[in-house]
Amino acid sequence: MDYLNFSKKEWEILICFWNAQEPLCCSDFSERFNLNRNTSLSVIRKLVNKGILEVASIKMSGSVLARRFQPKVTELEVLQSILNQDQIFAMLQVAIGRLEEKQLAMLMDKITAKKQELSMPKDHQ
Predict the structure, then answer these.
(1) Cα gap 16→56, rounded to integer Å
(2) In which band, very low, low, confident or very high, does the pLDDT at 17 lie, cut at 50, 70 and 90?
(3) Sorted alphabetically, which InterPro entries does this protein's record hold (predicted)?
(4) 3-state secondary structure of 67
């Protein structure tokens, strides 16, 4: 997916869904994020067609059935697809500077495990 070609409104809607952290129907979404309902519905439809949002469930909204949407991709998946190795490394350097001691220890464990995995001969993996 070429996320760099998303419109400003598509990014805005996707980020709102990530922040919502729960499936929302169009009317609830528009109300919560103070966005025009027709614009939201149009952009949500585009993101569903692109495979970025999915229908999580269907619920009663008043007297009608309403589809509840949720992101099909995470922020991390999007970042991994648009950043190259040098950009990821630069981002990690900044992030490491913000970590606490416990988080650094967990990260070191992951780095050690990955180094061991990479140093194993291919037929032992």
Answers:
(1) 16
(2) very high
(3) WH-like_DNA-bd_sf (IPR036388), WH_DNA-bd_sf (IPR036390)
(4) strand
Which among 91, 95, 86, 71 is positioned nearest to 3, based on CA atoms?
71
Helices (H), the chain: 8-20, 26-32, 37-49, 75-82, 85-96, 101-119
- Return d(Cα 66, Cα 73) in angstroms, integer: 22
* Closest CA relative to residue 68, chosen from 80, 59, 79, 81: 59
pTM, rounded to two decimals: 0.72
Contacts of residue 118, Cβ cutoff 8 Å, sequence gap at least 6: none
Chain length of the chain: 125
pLDDT tens digit string along 22-36?
999 999 999 999 999
Per-residue pLDDT tens digits for 104-121: 999 999 999 999 999 987
Amino acid at 72: K
In the numeric block, which tokens belong to residue 85? Answer: 């190795």
pLDDT at position 125: 57
